[in-house]
TrEMBL record:
<feature type="transmembrane region" description="Helical">
    <location>
        <begin position="309"/>
        <end position="330"/>
    </location>
</feature>
<feature type="transmembrane region" description="Helical">
    <location>
        <begin position="215"/>
        <end position="237"/>
    </location>
</feature>
<keyword id="KW-1133">Transmembrane helix</keyword>
<dbReference type="InterPro" id="IPR007300">
    <property type="entry name" value="CidB/LrgB"/>
</dbReference>
<feature type="transmembrane region" description="Helical">
    <location>
        <begin position="436"/>
        <end position="455"/>
    </location>
</feature>
<feature type="transmembrane region" description="Helical">
    <location>
        <begin position="276"/>
        <end position="297"/>
    </location>
</feature>
<feature type="transmembrane region" description="Helical">
    <location>
        <begin position="182"/>
        <end position="203"/>
    </location>
</feature>
<feature type="transmembrane region" description="Helical">
    <location>
        <begin position="59"/>
        <end position="81"/>
    </location>
</feature>
<keyword id="KW-0812">Transmembrane</keyword>
<feature type="transmembrane region" description="Helical">
    <location>
        <begin position="342"/>
        <end position="361"/>
    </location>
</feature>
<dbReference type="Pfam" id="PF04172">
    <property type="entry name" value="LrgB"/>
</dbReference>
<feature type="transmembrane region" description="Helical">
    <location>
        <begin position="159"/>
        <end position="176"/>
    </location>
</feature>
<feature type="transmembrane region" description="Helical">
    <location>
        <begin position="467"/>
        <end position="490"/>
    </location>
</feature>
<protein>
    <submittedName>
        <fullName>Uncharacterized protein</fullName>
    </submittedName>
</protein>
<keyword id="KW-0472">Membrane</keyword>
<feature type="transmembrane region" description="Helical">
    <location>
        <begin position="368"/>
        <end position="391"/>
    </location>
</feature>
<dbReference type="GO" id="GO:0016020">
    <property type="term" value="C:membrane"/>
</dbReference>
Length: 495
């Protein structure tokens, strides 16, 4: 991700027309990857079933420690980033140079860190009025209308229909004739994924649901959650039908050979293992994470500013705090064994960066992966429920509420905005403390899942979330390289 961002940013400095090339040829592909990369998060959630079931007391302690550390992390991230960025804003005189009218100021005073216009209870949701019709439609007209609606729905969801068709006509026959369930698991995974997205889309655009019901249902039908549960059900059903252990079924579901690994070990025996459903999903996830370098370039004005410095500072402080205080806190609470406590050293770090940290600390990587994924799902659901938008309205800082904070239109480069008013508003939004604080909080506590949601909803907090996620992971890995510190942490937790 960082390499892609640095490469395209350097190219933009040296060659003219890179912005136009990105908008025309790369932006749509990056948005598509971002839309579907979250399917990769279902795999670590499914693999939780591999871990042995602990006793009730240990499970209760883990849940309690998980909730406590998550709550403390969220508060610290927000209330560290907010005052720091507020000070940065006060030092920047350009933010206060505005001549907007009072009405425009009040209208723009809300930071649009959370764009939930179609799902939030407090958002404007226009329901088309029901018009009284004098003419009664004939049965033939109703049939034609239903057929037209079905055709439109089919054209809007072609991949959903294709994968369900492949599941029935290819996956199931191959499973019962050859015993190979690779095709079935791949087709079923994406069929369920696209079905969940279609349900969410129908809820978001429905004109029959009240706004609050819309928000509730949209949050409940989280695509990652329901796809994970469906695939867990499939794994247990497959184990019962084939009379195999669940560990063998999950081993076939993910062979640890995504495309990146196959390319890195090209020509070796590692490429002999076929890609399974989990490997395909993780390949899409890895591609989406790399493509975030393009999204960072899209928001480069925000990142290469004092706000970016705020993000790095807060992420570094919390990375060190989690590394040291997380394991010590849960150890004092009574969580055993030591490997479980050490898993909290990287409880919010993306799995790709948390794995080497767990190897150094000898922590429970299964528990760590479970916490990362569950945190992401909870944040995604909370944002879907409109919690972020509600908190944004309740939390203010100083006199910032009286200052203009109109945000940029996501996906539109600031350099391309020729209108002077838009440029001034965009420049001020770059320094909006609440937008920066929200992005930092989500990026640090929900890994890539919350960031993916922000990009999907075109939130202005998305680039700060992505940057904080990267900074947290890098600083956590950096802290794990300090051998005296790691030795002291392990010694204290093992005591």
């Amino acid at each position: 991700m960082a390499v892609v961002f640095c490469s395209i940013w350097t190219s933009g400095l040296l060659v003219s027309g890179v912005d136009v090339f990105y908008e025309r040829h790369l932006k749509c592909a990056a948005d598509l990857l971002n839309r579907h990369m979250s399917v990769g998060f279902t795999i670590p959630f499914i693999m939780i079933c591999r871990s042995p079931v602990a006793d009730a007391g240990t499970i209760g302690l883990i849940i309690g420690c998980f909730v406590l550390t998550g709550f403390v992390n969220s508060l610290l991230a927000y209330f560290l980033a907010l005052p720091i960025q507020s000070l940065v804003v006060r030092w920047d005189a350009r933010v206060w140079d505005c001549s907007a009218s009072e009405e425009e100021t009040q209208e723009r005073s809300r930071s649009k860190a959370f764009r939930l216009s179609a799902t939030s209870c407090d958002s404007e949701f226009v329901v088309s009025p029901v018009e009284e019709t004098t003419a009664v439609e004939s049965p033939s007209q109703e049939t034609q209308s239903c057929a037209t609606s079905l055709l439109i729905w089919s054209l809007e969801n072609p991949l959903l229909l294709i994968f369900w068709l492949l599941t029935i006509t290819v996956g199931i026959p191959l499973r019962y004739t050859t015993g190979d369930d690779t095709a079935l698991s791949i087709c079923l995974l994406f069929a369920v994924w696209f079905s969940a997205l279609a349900i969410q889309g129908a809820i978001k655009t429905s004109q029959r649901l009240r706004p609050c019901a819309q928000t509730l249902l949209f949050g409940l039908f989280n695509a990652v959650l329901w796809t994970s549960l469906a695939m867990i059900g499939y794994a247990f059903a497959n184990a019962a039908i084939s009379k195999r252990s669940i560990h063998d079924i999950l081993g076939d579901l993910q062979t640890n050979s995504p495309l990146s690994r196959r390319i890195a070990h090209l020509g070796t025996s590692a490429t002999d293992v076929p890609m399974a459903a989990g490997d395909v999903a993780l390949t899409i996830l890895n591609a989406g994470l790399v493509a975030w370098g393009l999204k960072l370039y899209e928001y480069r004005r925000q990142l290469l500013s004092r706000a970016g410095l705020t993000v790095f500072l807060v992420s570094s402080v919390l990375a060190l705090g989690n590394m040291v205080l997380g394991p010590l806190l849960v150890h004092r609470i009574g969580l055993r064994p030591a490997s479980s406590g050490l898993a909290f050293a990287a409880r919010s770090v993306t799995i790709a960066l948390a794995s080497p940290v767990m190897a150094i600390l000898k922590g429970d990587d299964g528990l760590n992966a479970a916490m990362v994924v569950i945190s992401g799902i909870l944040y995604q659901m909370a944002l879907g429920f409109g919690v972020g938008a509600w908190l944004e309205k309740k939390l203010t800082w100083g006199s910032w509420e009286q200052q203009p904070a109109e945000v940029t239109v996501a996906g539109r480069d600031i350099e391309a905005q020729t209108d002077a008013g838009r440029t001034t508003a965009a420049a001020s939004s770059v320094h909006d403390p609440r937008t920066v604080a929200a992005g930092v909080t989500i990026g640090i506590n929900s890994a890539a899942m919350g960031t993916a949601y922000l990009y999907e909803t075109k939130s202005d907090a998305a680039p700060y979330s992505a940057l904080s996620m990267i900074a947290l992971g890098i600083m956590t890995v950096g802290c794990s390289a300090i051998k005296p510190l790691i030795g002291w942490i392990v010694e204290q937790v093992a005591a």
